[in-house]
Amino acid sequence: PDGGAAERARERSLALAKPPGSLGEIEDLGARLAAISGRVPPPVPEDPAVIVCAGDHGVLGRGVSPWPREVTAAMVRNFCGDGAAVNAIAKSVGARVSVLDVGVATELARHPRLRTARVRPGTDDLSLGPAMGREEAARALMSGAGMAEELVGSGVDLLVTGDMGIGNTTPAAALVSAFTGRPPEETTGRGTGIDDETLRLKRSVVEEALALHDPDPKDPLGVLAALGGLEHAAIAGVILAGAANGTPVVLDGVISNSAALVARALVPDSTGYLVAGHLSAEPGASVALEHLGLRPLLDLGLRLGEGTGGLLAVPLVRAAARVLGEMALLEDLELG
Amino acid sequence: PDGGAAERARERSLALAKPPGSLGEIEDLGARLAAISGRVPPPVPEDPAVIVCAGDHGVLGRGVSPWPREVTAAMVRNFCGDGAAVNAIAKSVGARVSVLDVGVATELARHPRLRTARVRPGTDDLSLGPAMGREEAARALMSGAGMAEELVGSGVDLLVTGDMGIGNTTPAAALVSAFTGRPPEETTGRGTGIDDETLRLKRSVVEEALALHDPDPKDPLGVLAALGGLEHAAIAGVILAGAANGTPVVLDGVISNSAALVARALVPDSTGYLVAGHLSAEPGASVALEHLGLRPLLDLGLRLGEGTGGLLAVPLVRAAARVLGEMALLEDLELG
Fold it and tell me: What is the CA radius of gyration of chain A?
């Protein structure tokens, strides 16, 4: 990111026809968009797209979620059929929806909205061995990056990360613990909704996985392969491609937050291209965002994923850019 | 509001293709919109409008703000000229901007976006006597209501309250203290930005005014006349007209929050038609919203007014309605 552009945006913000600082975090966001684009005012995003990355999880066999594995594929069909929350919210903010199958266990029918890049039919159980091979993690990451590159090439000027994968908050918690050093009880939560007993089991599964793999955060691809999910890898790729293209990437919840830690471990500068769309109700989200130094725009108790929380923040991004581009200056006010 | 519709919305929300409750406050908002409209799903707002109510304040003579009185008129001209934050943000969320002069001290030139209904050229100093007469408060309130009625008649389906008036956080603090019983040190803040000394002065001005008028919350129009501003009165009118028409009203910051207390004292049911757009940085805002039982959607450290924080919440309102109207049901997912 371009620190000079951020500085110029802050100066412009102070000169606008309003009391200095009175637009709070919208002003910070404007400076961030300037840094990302290298332009003051930054361009107003006109063509946002959410990429919903989908995969299945071997760890589901441990009973970490009440939902059956088949729901992942069913929800991917629902995304294609325009019946999910991500579809409704994408329409309400004017965003495209793209779906990337990087590892759904069930084979899915072709659909214009669905990119099939199944690296493998779901991961293995991370508490018994590596979730996937290192090369597979790299392939999933490249698939996400490739899809982002293609969307940017077709005119998309704002990327939103999204995820679908029954069981995927377990690998997210493991990744957050691995990269932040925080213990599983601080990073593992109820996901889309589990009871106390299942939560205890889920925490011990994450503990077992960390003990088994002893992850080294200096080897991010190794950590991703040992503990991650295919959609986590793909989202890390979306982030790296966004950063490489100077396109802002709005993060959704804890899956995206954990992927941002992977991306940062690979390319430290990538975090500067991110906007934290919202704070997920999952505890690992705040741990990850704090570690990344990102302050979430929304805090609405969301714990759905799919990109819903990221999409809800898109209008704030647009507003922040418009404020810098369209407001008069204080010195131009006619005091009559 | 229609409690039965809210209940049906909650049931529908539980049946949608997502884990129950996973959309957090967006689900609560959907139920609220159902209650307001009496329909499940509630209509998706297509034609929102912000009404920026403007007035001047005699208390400015006490030195409660560093900004000169002339800025109120200059900003009204800026709203008409499309150069203010409210204009940029309204464009970014697709809302109309209407401006209501209920009491700007300076006479303003006609403009298609400006409704002139100057009850008087600003209020008197509330620390020395009543800010305005009871009949004047009623007229300002009716002007706001009339403008809201006219907009709703022309197709507006979501109202956003906004304000402009140099010095207007002082009467807002006095109103919040009068209706909630909380002391001035909890309701009086730095407004758009004042130093410690001015803050101490501002608090003592609010204390003096409360001591002078000994406001009786059971006489809301009397309290409004003694302590309020003309734009506070007009916003209370916008709220009452919205409620009377079953049109949701999104509140901006502390000026709007204080006006909502007036509206509630007059018509207790009116609060049920409100959505708290954001939490202003001004301390009276959280005191007022707590008293109203409203949870703000956004918390971005805004302290500008004009309707900016209310407008930024409009996309969340649209999303909440769309989610209820467009999502598939869980039972319709094909798990095969």
Answer: 20
> Structure tokens of B7?
């209940």
Of A24, A93, A319, the CB nearest to B281: A24
With CA atoms as reference, report the closest residue to B169 among B71, B85, B286, B285.
Answer: B285
What is the distance between the alpha carbons of residues A8 and A230, in angstroms, rounded to a whole number? 40
Decide if A83 contacts B327 (C-beta within 8 A): yes
Beta carbons of A88 and B308 less than 8 Å apart: no
Looking up tokens 């916003």 gives B235
Alpha-helical (H) ranges within chain B are 3-15, 24-37, 70-80, 85-93, 134-153, 169-180, 184-187, 196-213, 220-227, 230-245, 254-266, 283-292, 308-312, 314-326
Domains A3-43+322-332 and A48-317 share a fold: no
Domain B48-317 in CATH 3.40.50.10210? The answer is yes
Pick among 1.10.1610.10, 2.30.130.10, 1.10.150.120, 3.40.30.10: CATH of A3-43+322-332: 1.10.1610.10
From first to last of the 336 residues of chain A, give the pLDDT tens digit. 999 999 999 999 999 999 999 999 999 999 999 999 999 999 999 999 999 999 999 999 999 999 999 999 999 999 999 999 999 999 999 999 999 999 999 999 999 999 999 999 999 999 999 999 999 999 999 999 999 999 999 999 999 999 999 999 999 999 999 999 999 999 999 988 899 999 999 999 999 999 999 999 999 999 999 999 999 999 999 999 999 999 999 999 999 999 999 999 999 999 999 999 999 999 999 999 999 999 999 999 999 999 999 999 999 999 999 999 999 999 999 886
Residues of chain B positioned with their CB less than 8 A from the CB of A198: none
| CB pair distance less than 8 Å for A17 and B319 | no
Enumerate the domain spans of chain A: 3-43+322-332, 48-317
* Predicted interface score ipTM higher than 0.95: yes
Residues of B in contact with A281 (CB under 8 A): 24
